[in-house]
Each structure stands twice: as C-alpha cells, then as structure tokens.
C-alpha cells in the first residue's frame, strides 16, 4: 500500500493548484504587433473579425482618434486627416487596413475593436494591438533609443539620450508628451539634476559626456506614454527634440486566484485533507493488522497440531516388547 503515503501530497497539490500561474488556453488573449518603418513607407494592419459582428473599428491609443470604422454592410468612416492615405479591404471576416506615406505623427498605438450583437445587446470587443513607430530619415540633434519598450508592471526600463558631438548643450530633459504630459528628469551640463515628482525614488541615471542613460524603476500602469529626449543647446531659442521618442507600454501582471483568497480558508482545507488522509490510513492499517493476526492464529494451530503429531510418534511404545 505504498500509494497511501502519497495521499497527503496529492491533496495539497489539488488544493494549491489554483495558486500556480498557468495558461488560460488563449482565452481572451490578444496579440501585439510592432511595426517600425521609415517616413514615406507604407504599413498594413489586419483586424480579425468575429461572429455576429456589426462592424470593426481601428482607433489610436494615444490621443484617441477613430481612424476607421467599417460596418457589416460596408459603409465606412475614415478620419479626414488620413482620408488620402488610407485604404482598406475586407477579407472574409477580417479587415485589412493600409496606411501609405507614413509620417512621424503616425507613430502610435493602434487598436482593433469588434462591434458585435450578443444576446440582444451591443458589445465592443478589443482585438489586436499594433504599435507603429515611424523613424525620421533625419534624426536631428538629439538621438534616443530604444524606439519601443514593453515591460511588465514592477519592472524597469532604460532610455538613452545623446546629443551629437558638434553641439554644446546646457542640459537634457526627459519628457512625457502624450497621455499625461509632464517632465520626468532634467540634467544640466554640470550634472546637476532635477527628478520630478512622478518618478521620485523610482529613477536613476548615469551621464557620460553628452550621453545619459535613464532607468525608470517599479513601473506602473499609468507610466505608459511616449517619452521624448529634449536638449537645451547654448545660444538656441528653443528645445531640440528627438523626433521619434520612446513608446513605453506597461503590461499588467496577471493576478492569480490566491491574491483574492483567504489563506485561513486554505489552511482549514489543508487540515481537513490531512485528517481525512489520516482516517483512511488508520482504517487500512486496522484491516491489514486484522488479516495479519488471523493468519498468525491459523499458523499457530497448525504448528500445535504438527507438534502433537510428532510427540505422539516419539512416545509411541512397542506393544510387543512384553
């Protein structure tokens, strides 16, 4: 009965199974594509359709704008500023959108949505996310990398700002420019710095010549934004801004069921499971002991009979001796 010893472990595993992160089979999971192109090129985004759909949207995530809407009856709306550069075609349930002659201002997060009818109600379902980064052919005075970062909540991201060597700077800013415009950091040419409140105690930087590496720690969901390096040059009347910036999109960490459950409840369940296992073990132990003693008693009777038989044989006398 070796398997009995593994019952407590098995029960513990079953009880704690919801605590371990696992795959959800792709349910409600949406993909993210990243497209990086030069100015003047074209990009294509495909939005996947679904059953009972009434139409599909393509919107931007930064400074939200409805770029395109196409109904099931093929009526459409195109954002006027893009009307001359956008084309679309329906491929079964899918919608393929092509944007021609892309500009720096087209750098954005594009979101697909399905507009469906479910149980008599209209619903808007989020589909694929596409991050588009359009690189300027002339990088300007300020260089910056990376173009895009996708860390999880609680993680860190590093952004590098550098001025071209032929320019003498007075300082460099790191700015948030879209969803929540604000200053993040200012570092002067003398390495004096100002860290603004949004990243107090969450920012580190290192400066080497005209290059600064800025690391943002313990990222939060509302830190998602466009981050831009801007240089203050001597004798200049305006900021010199990097044209591309860095798109930072923070991914939420999936919460397991254990975060919302009481460990007291789990403790009680574990105790009950252990008591149940002990009851089973005791019952089986008693059954095995009963069988053992029954066998032992039968063996003793057999041995006693055997002994008596041998004894009678040894003490038997010769009746003809007299």
Automatic annotation (TrEMBL):
Gene that this sequence comes from: Cd7
Entry protein name: CD7 protein
Pfam families: V-set
A GO BP entry: adaptive immune response
Lineage of producing organism: Eukaryota, Metazoa, Chordata, Craniata, Vertebrata
Keyword annotations from UniProtKB, A to Z: Membrane, Signal, Transmembrane, Transmembrane helix
Gene Ontology CC annotations of this record: membrane
Organism whose genome encodes this protein: Himantopus himantopus
InterPro entries linked to this entry: CD7, Ig-like_dom_sf, Ig-like_fold, Ig_sub, Ig_V-set
Signal peptide coordinates: 1-26
